[in-house]
Amino acid sequence: MIFTTSKLTYKAYTYKTRSSPIKITTKTIDLVPDSQSPSSFVAPPGKILIKVNYVALNPFDTKLYSMAIWPISTNSGIGRDFSGEIISIGQNTSSGFKICDLVQGIYPLFYDSQGTLSEYLLVSPRDIDIGVIPKNMSLIDAASRVTVFGTTVSISEELGFKGKKVLILGGGTSVGRYLVQLTHQFQAKEVVVTCSGRTQTTIENLGADKIIDYTKHENLVTPILDSVKETGSFDYIIDCYGGNQLFPKIKTILTRNGSYYTLAGDYPGSSFKKVLWSMIKVNLRQVWSKMGLLGYKYKFVQFIRFEKDLMKKSLELLETGKFETFIDSVYPFDQLDQAIEKLESGKTSGKVVVEVAKE
Ligand SMILES: NC(=O)c1ccc[n+]([C@@H]2O[C@H](COP(=O)([O-])OP(=O)(O)OC[C@H]3O[C@@H](n4cnc5c(N)ncnc54)[C@H](OP(=O)(O)O)[C@@H]3O)[C@@H](O)[C@H]2O)c1
């Protein structure tokens, strides 16, 4: 894209703290004269300019907002996952990308003045994880997969599912749907999944061997112990929704030296109190686990960035076309409130996406 003025004015969502609203603000990027053609302007040296098309919301976005107290947050952007197009590359920028590349990415800086719910992103390549979208993938699909698929691939890389008995709590979540597919495709011995009746058929079709409908059990321990009686203890428990019901019986449910990974901690939800208590509990349990006091490995998964070659691996897996994507709804840029309301309803079937600009 050729810019004929040095100032690029655009809209982005920002908030000051959790007690102020998330609202659209007008921002400006200062471009610099192009050395080849001084009457046109490009991104500053060392930076790339991305035009954002789609942003998938994550519960993490609203958790960050609900924890945004002064002075941790004074003027923060919102949104992490995105897809879009590289429209300008500044001089001396070694990014490996070229103009017009369609990319997906994750913006990993918390409480930064920039978030991805923004018409443009001006970034240093080292501050951001981006990858070129495979040709068979739309920009909307790409945005909806970034964090959730990346998280499940990182767990799969660490644990390895072949021949293991796996319990997935909250298989109906966006992240859980990919985990069911990965455990099945990577030949887990048995995949037991909790989800509601409305999602049961979908999860079975993705490869789950057994479903436990969480709406029919006040406490999940009983049906899970039934599975242990039938086919033995679990090698892995991966909690994609949040909870702590299994801990009183964990030594029967998990094999010795098995692994309990949680993505959401002890208390589901994004309120300040729930997130804080969850953080306290998971950190204590992680310390006990490291000290060898639990008899199993406990980990709170924190997928912040694509480490090493994880972006490449996750894009290669997606390129196989073997993974089904679930998009619950797409909201226009000016309807973020409604999109957040839907995200927090607990009744989504896949990702809630915001369209910043049409593909
Ligand atoms: N730590 C990390 O790195 C990381 C990365 C990604 C996500 N996460 C966390 O993982 C969690 C899920 O994220 P997401 O985006 O995948 O969620 P999501 O798509 O918004 O989850 C919505 C789903 O939650 C399910 N659900 C509602 N109540 C449930 C219950 N009591 N038990 C089990 N499932 C229930 C529903 O499935 P049914 O249709 O079955 O009712 C619903 O479809 C969030 O807390 C998120 O912050 C963490």
From TrEMBL:
Its main location: other. Keywords: Lipid droplet. It comes from the Eukaryota. Residues 36-354 form the Enoyl reductase (ER) domain. SMART domains: PKS_ER. It is found in: Lipid droplet. This is Enoyl reductase (ER) domain-containing protein. It comes from Candida maltosa (strain Xu316).
